[in-house]
Specification:
Layout (H helix, E strand, L loop, with lengths): L1 H21 L12 H30 L5 H30 L16 H28 L7 H40 L6 H26 L16 H23 L10 E5 L2 E5 L2 E6 L5 H12 L6 E5 L23 H11 L4 E6 L7 H14 L2 E6 L14 E3 L1
Parallel strand pairs: 3-4, 3-5, 5-6, 6-7
Antiparallel strand pairs: 1-2
Length: 410
């Protein structure tokens, strides 16, 4: 009887999807990608490259003037490349949104606590987000510039994306608890005088199985697996679109490779676990973002000492505030003040270039957070698969920021 009822539910679900895709009142009415759309996005890319050339020439000029130290010029150049990379990936992401269809959820419709109504709502949210994004992109094309819309637009879409995140968190809650338990056991075993290699192997296999299961759930909910990276996998059958996708990908990989050659810290080399500020952290490649504004300086040295007790080679980035705002392009690089301590740039560098598996952000959370920046941070965290740990000596996270935090301490 139970199997019969399940089959009936699945038939109703498939019928809903058929209606959603076929009937005029339900169908996705999004216009196909036109040649003008492709040309406009290509023009955005070319404009970005011209801006980058001008900025590079200005930095070269300052370098020849010998007014700045070599390490400051290098950091400024890297900041410029990171900012332009951030914008390049925005163009690449917009193109993927336009051309990649939303696939209905036909498999594993009863996966770990997500029932048929949940799957229906997930599919609706995915379509609503894509349709709104397509409208934003095309309005930008008509205006002749990248169109980020206002806070109200991003607040609305952030709410929908956080709804998807809640579906994922609910479906993986039990698995996440098991993963944390296993990682604590691994950390304890690795610190013991005689390591049980067989036990370590068994625990890692159990954890990997749980992680694989979570990735499948993430693919269902977000359209890609956690940790899938920043390579947009969908290749269009249309040749002009495919050519632009290849052009953007080639430039992104070139810039990422250049920035990675500038990095000397390769992480821990092995997984390590320890407590930082009351939070258990298990990481092979830890990234730490420190707010070093005046109110935070009394805490910095003691925190670094605490981190050093468990981790030998964390990637440190220091910022002058804890503002989360979308990165402007062309970037406002002040050659005299060398303002390269942007929080979003630091997150992007650690997640995309350094490929950290864990972020630890220390601040007071008293500065502003734009909805557009929160959306971009959520996308980077999910695509990187990194855990986001936040410790504040001031405010608690906002209602919009809190769901994307793995662990919060105050």
């Amino acid at each position: 009887m139970r199997n019969y009822q399940k089959s009936i539910r699945q038939l109703f679900y498939l019928y809903f999807l058929l209606c959603f895709q076929t009937f005029p009142c339900f169908a996705n009415k999004e216009a196909p990608v036109s040649a003008a759309d492709v040309e406009a996005l290509k023009q955005q890319f070319e404009n970005l490259q011209k801006t980058k050339e001008i900025l590079s020439a200005n930095i070269d000029k300052e370098e020849k003037g010998n007014q700045f130290k070599a390490e400051d010029i290098t950091r400024l150049r890297n900041s410029m490349n990171l900012t332009c990379l951030y914008e390049l990936m925005s163009i690449e992401r917009d193109l993927t949104i336009l051309v990649k269809p939303i696939e209905p959820i036909l498999e594993k419709v009863d996966i770990l606590g997500l029932d048929l109504r949940d799957n229906k709502r997930i599919y609706e949210l995915q379509l609503e987000i894509r349709q709104a994004e397509c409208t934003r992109i095309r309005q930008g094309i008509v205006a002749g510039q990248a169109n980020y819309e206002g806070d109200r637009f991003h607040e609305k879409l952030l709410k929908k994306e956080l709804s998807l995140l809640q579906f994922y968190q609910r479906a993986t809650k039990k698995g996440q608890r098991e993963i944390l338990k296993i990682e604590k056991e691994l950390a304890k075993e690795k610190k013991s005088r005689i390591i049980d290699r067989e036990l370590v192997k068994e625990l890692k296999e159990q954890r990997d199985e749980l992680i694989t299961q979570n990735k499948k759930i993430a693919t269902l909910v977000f359209g890609y697996a956690l940790g899938a990276g920043f390579d947009y996998e969908y290749i269009s059958p249309n040749q002009s679109i495919a050519d632009l996708q290849a052009l953007l990908k080639k430039e992104r990989e070139r810039v990422v490779q250049f920035l990675r050659t500038e990095q000397t810290n390769r992480g821990e080399g092995e997984e390590r676990g320890g407590s930082i500020g009351g939070t258990f952290i298990y990481s092979e490649n830890l990234g730490v973002v420190l707010d070093i504004s005046g109110s935070m300086t009394p805490f910095i040295e003691s925190l670094k000492y605490e981190i050093a007790q468990s981790f030998q080679s964390p990637h440190y980035r220091e910022t002058f505030n804890c503002v989360l705002q979308n990165i402007p392009c062309p970037p406002r690089l002040d050659l005299n003040k060398l303002q390269y301590g942007d929080t979003m740039i630091s997150f992007a560098e650690l997640l995309i270039i350094n490929q950290v598996d864990t972020l630890y952000w220390f601040s007071d959370l008293r500065d502003g957070q734009s909805p557009a920046a929160l959306r971009r941070l959520l996308d980077m965290v999910l695509r990187s698969g990194a855990a986001l740990n936040v410790r504040s000596v001031g405010d608690r996270p906002s209602r919009a920021f809190k769901p994307m935090i793995t662990n919060f301490t105050k």
